[in-house]
Amino acid sequence: MKWKAAIFLMIMLVITPVTTLATHHTSSIEKLDQISDEALQLVKSSRYEEAKKLLEYFSDQFLLYTMENHSFSIDETRIVTLAHNEAVEAMSNGTMNHEERINRVTKFRLAIDAITSSNQPLWTGMEGPIMSVFAEVKEAALKGENESFHSQLNSFLSLYEMIYPSMKLNAPVQTVQKIDARIQFIDEYRPQILSDQTSQIELEALEQDLRDLFDQTSEDEADPSLWWVIITTGSIIIVTLSYVGWKKYKGEKEKEREKKRM
């Protein structure tokens, strides 16, 4: 019986440190994710100073985690750092409106989830809003509705920018580059897209590329406990997209009028 007890003790001595390390690793990852979510909730409530302090605290914890675990690649660290810097800047910019602050911190929140979640990443839950807005872009182009096309395209670009860091973290490089190239073409040659049916084929191609993207990254079901985050974030985006897109369009038209006066 003594030898059985000795073997059991040896097994426990070997397993316990590993288990403790795994628990510490998991809790540290979850802590980073939790901080990013809490920061987003503070921004939604317009508590910008508190959100800024929490984002600065995140920076310290992220640095500590990466030094201890070395589990993030250089690209992952760079992408997260850029998204984090944008979020902090949004909290310090007194001229930035509430909707844009939410967008910046949402971008950061989704990026953190993309590298910490073991389930389906939250950004894939944005498929509905993205495809819905893009359908409006395509419809406006096909009908030749100039003002609506520019407004809806700006809305789509705002939403695309929000999930872009997360895409780069989770999707194949070739897929992201392909979508990027199509979006840049459509944005740069807006008048041509509106007037040329051949160029409008790019809209169809981009729509299919976007569907392929979400299909590739949505094979597993998301954790049910995370769906409230997807729904909440998606609702905010849907409400603010039209406002942001319209404001950007009006700003561009005003700049054009000022140039003509000069």
UniProtKB/TrEMBL annotation:
It comes from the Bacteria. The chain crosses the membrane at residues 226-246. It holds the Pfam family Spore_YpjB. Keywords: Membrane, Signal, Transmembrane, Transmembrane helix. Residues 1-20 form the signal peptide. NCBIfam families: spore_ypjB. This is Sporulation protein YpjB. It comes from Anoxybacillus andreesenii.
